[in-house]
Design a protein that fits this description.
Helices cover 30% and strands 28% of the residues. It is of the alpha+beta class. The chain binds one RNA strand through strand 12 and helix 9.
Amino acid sequence: MLQSKLFSRTTKNLPEGEESKNAQLLTKGGFVNKSSAGVYSMLPLGLKVLNKINQIIREEMNAIGGEELLMPSLVQKKYWEQSVRWGVDVIYKTGETIKSEKDLQYGLGWTHEEVISAIAKHFINSYKDLPKAVYQIQTKFRAEPRAQAGLLRGREFLMKDLYSFHLDEKDLNDFYRKVIDAYKKIMDRLCLKALVTEASGGAFTKEFTHEFQVLNSAGEDTVMHCEKCDWAQNKEITQVAEGGKCPKCGGVVKSDRGIEVANVFRLGTKFSKDFNLNYLDQNGEKKMVVMGSYGIGPTRLMGTLVEEYNDEKGIIWPDSVASFKVHLIVLGDSAKAQKEADKTYENLVRHFGELEVLYDERNASAGEKLNDADLLGAPWRIVVSEKTMAEKRVEVKRRSEKTAKLVSIKEFFKLAA
RNA sequence: CGGACUGUAGUAUAAUGGUAGUAUAUAUGCUUUGGGAGCAUAUGGCCUGGGUUCGAUUCCCAGCAGUCCGACCA
């Protein structure tokens, strides 16, 4: 893609008052645009990142037998009333609707246990229908009293929500483990280290739930975790103080801020009861379906990646999610260098595809181009100039490293493989 | 929802009870090209409502909006 043709452009000035790194850098680079507090548009560059994150999530969800579907965002009041959740204060509710249905009210979906339970009634009647797992990647709405920290806490955000249906607790627990493993794979592919953290079960269950916490000072949660082993608990429930002994291995317990990027819940029969979601077992006896729900926030993950991977110049995207794999820059205005860079661009496009190569062919100064490349954070930067041509090489630099080197384009393809 | 601070051009900012200035971005031309280049010209702005005043972008009140802190947060 040609940089001169991009819809967005980078800015020199930082947005006023925004203090979080992810809001600053994503706005400066033209990845996102804030419409109002906690409400963001994904601009073309940002959407490319988000789509890659979503694709990774999809692949791992499909791998454990999840089927993708899409539920409505507009959810009629009766659904929420059935689970006694119409009263929660995070629901955005519709005001006056059209006259002929003035008694009909809707809430914008902030989670979908109700809707999926109602749907599941149509398809789950027998033990032969279980287990099942479906998920969606969808915009969620929550009337947060205070949106903050850019993409980390929004009023509108993307969520992958997976729901599973089981014969009994044992079957649920087996699947629950599977989801945790799938989430671990997702974090690995996103280059994020997340602690599987025990947390309160809230209204659903007395058992622990598990949160995936990425330790980062931008986080809102406090995580107590062992220095040695993988033991971690949300501070809300933990009995151990900082500096105390890890209950699992005896190591030293530390306290750090964490960003909750995912969570897994055992719902049990809460919604099966509310929605009469039953099945007949082998003996013809009526039993309640046992459910689980599992969430990941792709937009929050995107913000977390920026918080984790940046330097004073800009973002350093992991290879798996970068908007572009390669950022090609031509320096100097000699027609020769231009021509050579054009050729290199075609070569790169043939190798990686057009969507993976950003070519800065603008008539701009060297400093501006180099700074933009650092800000946008593609994993590889290639410079073509009179200098590199004299050596019959291109200059290749990894965004995460300090030094560049001169190599042939063939050697670069090997490096980037 | 409580507290603090803030609303001036696309963005970032300055000054002012009486014609609103700068940087950056944008457009045009010339020059320039390895870390946000230079010159010239041009485009573009005082959140809304009420009050005080001869006169309000400025002072007062209210609203709306934003950021931060706290409370909240399946």
